[in-house]
Amino acid sequence: MGSRNNFTVLTHVTVWSLLGFILLFYPPLSWNFSVPPNFWVKQALNLVIMIGVFYVNALYVAPRLLFEQNGKVMFGIWLVGVVICFLVVARIIEVNLGVLADMSKVANKGPKDPYRLDFHLFMIMLLVMVISTSLAMARRWQADAQTRERIEKQHIASELSFLKAQINPHFFFNTLNNIYSLTYSDIPVSREAILKLSRMMRYVLYDTLSDSVPLQQELSFLKDYIALMALRLHECTTLEFNEPVSGRDYRIAPMLLLPFVENAFKHGSSAMQRSRIVVDLKVADGTLSLRVFNHITHEKDDYQLDKGGIGLANTRKRLDLLYVDKHTLMIREEPEEKTYEVLLTLQLDHEKVGQIAEPV
Q: pTM higher than 0.85 for the full model?
């Protein structure tokens, strides 16, 4: 943080040094006569005043007036008043230092009218105020953008918490009913199902509190979810699940893949007609590829995957925030064939993904 502040100060000093030299000190050097020392003192004082007015306007006046509902008129008055006051003060300094008389002597010209507008100085001061106001506006827009991004991330985090809360009771009780039925027919399978459910609840309640989790944990959660959902499938629905093979572990945002798989089970299973659900996961060279395919077994008005709830709309937001330029998402729907397919590619990181303020 200290080095960054030093860099900012150095940048401001460098810019002002160049600006002052180009606008105030370089032009007199090209004149065909030598200017008196008091002229350089006057130019230096003008530069100091400009710098002071620049930062007062950028840091205090413009942010308080320019962005207020009724402050634009006051800011216009301030802008005009500052320029006029500067020209008056600059002329007073010029007269008190005797610059006008000394310049007339060295230039072999008549005395300059002290009430005449110094157009060159007027344009420089106007330029300074324009840059100062632009800086204030840029700072405000940047702050607003950061605020919107922070609110959006908090909103996404809240939706993620809602997703966890939604999974807990709904999925938990449905799975318990299935396990209860299994205790009458297949005790070993029921025990394995209880173990899977326990792992899933631990992952949802504790492991997903961080911004990112090891990919293997996310895949284990997804595998347990698919295995438990398979207990509810009827004979008409065929399930294909291809697990990824990866020798290295990566990190991924928690519960990022679940909505795609959840939608497939929700809208692709049927007890009356033949349907197929495919979940294909691959990890290669730091890139995760997910393909989820399912037949649509409900009318279109019933599923509307992108409307309401947390579903794909929320997942799109999370991908856009956490994996900027690191993912591609393609959704293909074939109404005539009644099929729905999701294709996601994601560049994985060893480090943590973008920060989200998770509510605890």
A: no
Give the per-residue SS3 of 202-230. HHHHCHHHCCCEEHHHHHHHHHHHHHHHH
DSSP string, 119-130: HHHHHHHHHHHH
Cβ 326 vs Cβ 282: under 8 Å:
no
Among 20-24, 130-134, 300-304, the least confident range: 300-304
Residue 119 has which token pair?
Answer: 């157009």
343/303 Cα distance (integer angstroms): 19
| Residue 74 confidence class, pLDDT cut points 50, 70, 90 | confident
Instruction: State which amino acid sits at residue 199.
Output: R
CB of 294 closer than 8 Å to CB of 278 = yes
- From CA 245, how far away is CA 239, in angstroms rounded? 19
Between residues 26 and 262, the one the model is more confident about: 262
Which residues in the chain belong to E strands, given as ranges?
213-214, 237-242, 251-252, 275-284, 287-295, 327-334, 339-347
The type of residue at 305 is: L
Best CA proximity match to 51, nearest among 156, 135, 155, 111: 135
Read off the pLDDT band of 360 (50, 70, 90). very low
CB neighbourhood size of 173 (10 A): 10
Judged by DSSP in three states, 356 sits in coil
Mode of pairing for the β-strands spanning 327-334 and 339-347: antiparallel
Q: What is the DSSP string of 108-173?
A: T-PPPPTTS--HHHHHHHHHHHHHHHHHHHHHHHHHHHHHHHHHHHHHHHHHHHHHHHHIIIIIHH
The answer to whether 251 and 214 are in contact (CB under 8 A) is yes
Complete domains list, the chain, with CATH: 2-117 (no CATH), 155-347 (3.30.565.10)
